[in-house]
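Protocol step 4 of 6: structure prediction from sequence.
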Amino acid sequence: MGHIIMPAFAFRASLSEDAGARSGFTLTDNDLFNHLDPESDIARQLRSKALLRLPANAYADAVGDLLFALGAAETKGMPTLAMRLMSILGDDWRDLFALREMLHVEAIAREYLQRRNWSTGDQDEVYAELKTLFSGKTLDVWDAMQEAMAFELAHSPFYTRTLKKADSIALSALFKSEKLPVEADRFFDQRFINYLGAQPDKLDAMHWRQFEGLTAEWFQREGYSVELGTGRSDGGVDVRLWNPDSPPGAPPTVIVQCKRQKDKIAKVVVKGLYADLLHEQANSGMIVTTSDLSPGAANDISARAYPITTANRNKVQEWVEAMRIPSSGIVLDFEARTATE
């Protein structure tokens, strides 16, 4: 596929742009190095100040590795279009295509995608030729082909993709910023969910306000009416939850205390939450934490029959995994193609 020749700093800038435009993140050099395998050849070369000559497929694999590390792709590297289709179809692809046919499908599909991407040539003609290769196949097989092409367009650096600066978000904001989405129906950015799904160890490092937003996002998706506290001077109640059928003005169904910390939750936190529960006349309380209850706190809840439950680190990771949508905001809607059927 040839080689790309550029200074190391230009490669870093290109990687930042290609991976950033496909993940929705603005990435610094440190972000690149923190998410590439430090022992890989490309990571070592990128740290230099030399003029580099890299194989095009190695560069594409580096983009794919970054997308995987950022939670925007399901696999490392940059699969070929044929490999994407094979993966979607599973082992059944051998019953549908001979290997030679699969490679022919890939060649025609890539020609169509290149014409579509660059708005050149007769896209309809190539698209029609591609569809003839699927004649006699079920609709599911054609749907799989469209899905494979959508991922190819979205992930491969060999197709152009731009991201408006206003639509991007700094990866560092997950760890340093109190700013949460301003949309009324969102409390936490989907790109951060995807990232934490790929990097669960980063739960400990995320900003406490982002952790509150993550908690609120989970319960909203679970169908609760959610009120997220101000973050500061909120009286100790971070999130209030109401069942969907709760009448206006009713006390909260659940009040939530969020604790993004490594230390075990102490008894004083449990007692404080119980006092807030009584004050707010809530039905129950919950502690959401990246740690877990201390033995003393757990004993207090049990011995005193406090209506308080806990979502510990393992549970929060389950929430993240359940909300994770790696393709969200990344994969182009293939139905928006310019060619007609």
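Step 5 (inspection) to follow. Residues 3-69 form one domain.
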